[in-house]
Specification:
The chain is α/β, with parallel strands linked by helices. It has two domains: about 130 residues, Rossmann fold, CATH 3.40.50.720; about 160 residues, 2-Layer Sandwich (Dihydrodipicolinate Reductase, domain 2). It is about 30% helix and about 20% strand. α8 runs parallel beside α9.
């Protein structure tokens, strides 16, 4: 069986790719996009180092991929990964695992796209506090490139280690970073309330993630590990409150900020439109249309809307992304495309043309 969908596989692959963490939600989404990608050959799939010595087929773990590939998910090891001679490796594994795997893979000259937080924060002192482990590779924290494609495209083209942003941070950084850079926001903290679908918690069993238990509720109040990442990349102090939502995938973020005197809604809309009008995966919605998780589900898109109460100088921005795609796998593949010159939208399904309806049906 071919490792790719026959109709989309090119005769010569431009990039040999390995996915580590293919048995998780984000890793599986990476695999799914790459199997449709005409410029990538998926040469190996790996799970955790503790995975059984009897590897399981990927399409048995995720039956929706039945017929797409005959690859098995093997136990991860540096030797096994390097033996496949990949150009790029996606690390969709826990933070500590990425931290331990990355240096040897980088030393082998492989380009890494790390979906964990192991290299997102620049200050090594932040890791014991927010992630519970001491960071042993501070030099890579300085040389890695933060993988927001729309904001760091030139640096991504030259990067060997790309730290793919977190899902919550992506939903905030995309709308707010251009506004902070433009100098239109007061120095008061930006307040962010975000709700994520249950897939954001991964596949591990947890009581609050069970079908009969899941409910809309906040968690990690004043202590969520994505807060320092958001503040670092937006450039402003941030008060971030995440919520669990009773749906499977997607993030909706509602963001509050105070505008400087004389800044109105038209100015905010102009800044965001100027920044994103030519971006294929960011949409500034028409006035009156508000983002929803349903509208972006399964896509690599971020939808953004805003409103301003000019009497209070109060800005509200809402954004929506699919946490597993634009918040993880899709963003990683977008960075791969940039890094290897494959065409930024390659591998992402385009909207199907709406079929014409015969006139007699309409009459």
């Amino acid at each position: 069986m071919n490792h790719h969908t026959p109709s989309t596989r090119s005769s010569v692959a431009a990039c040999r790719a390995v996915v580590v963490g293919a048995a998780g939600y984000s890793g599986a989404e990476v695999v799914g996009i790459l199997l449709r990608h005409p410029g990538v050959e998926v040469v190996g799939l790996f799970g955790s180092a503790a995975r059984s010595e009897n590897p399981q087929r990927f399409d048995q773990i995720f039956p929706r991929f039945r017929g797409w590939t005959d690859l098995k998910v093997h136990a991860a090891s540096i030797e096994a990964i390097c033996a496949l001679k990949p150009d790029a490796v996606f690390l969709a594994v826990p933070h500590e695992a990425s931290h331990d795997l990355a240096p040897a893979l980088l030393a082998a000259g492989i380009t890494l796209l790390d979906l964990s937080a192991a290299f997102r924060l620049r200050d090594p002192d932040d890791y014991p506090k927010h992630y519970g482990f001491a960071h042993a590779h501070p030099a890579w924290l300085q040389s890695r490139v933060y993988g927001i494609a729309e904001l760091n495209r030139d640096a991504i083209r030259r990067a060997q280690l790309i730290a793919v942003p977190g899902c919550y941070p992506t939903s905030v950084i995309l709308p707010m970073r251009p506004l902070w850079d433009a100098g239109v926001l007061e120095a008061a903290p930006i307040i962010v309330d975000s709700t994520s679908g249950v897939s954001g918690a991964g596949r591990a069993l947890a009581l609050k993630s069970l079908f009969c238990e899941v409910s809309q509720q906040p968690y990690g109040v004043f202590k969520h590990r994505h807060q320092p990442e958001i503040a670092q990349e937006v450039g402003s102090d941030v008060i971030f409150t995440p919520h669990l939502g009773p749906f499977d995938r997607g993030i909706l973020s509602t963001i509050h900020a105070t505008l400087k005197h004389g800044v109105g809604e038209s100015a905010i809309r102009q800044i965001l439109s100027a920044r994103y009008n030519c971006e294929p995966f960011v949409t500034i919605l028409d006035a009156g249309a508000w983002p929803s998780v349903a509208a972006v589900s399964g896509s690599n898109r971020c939808d953004i809307q805003l409103a301003v109460d000019e009497s209070r100088r109060h800005l509200i921005v809402c954004s929506a992304i699919d946490n597993l795609i634009k918040g993880a796998a899709g963003q990683a593949v977008q960075c791969l495309n940039i890094r290897f010159g494959l065409g930024e939208t390659t591998g992402f399904a385009l909207p199907r043309a709406v079929p014409s309806v015969p006139q007699e049906v309409l009459s």
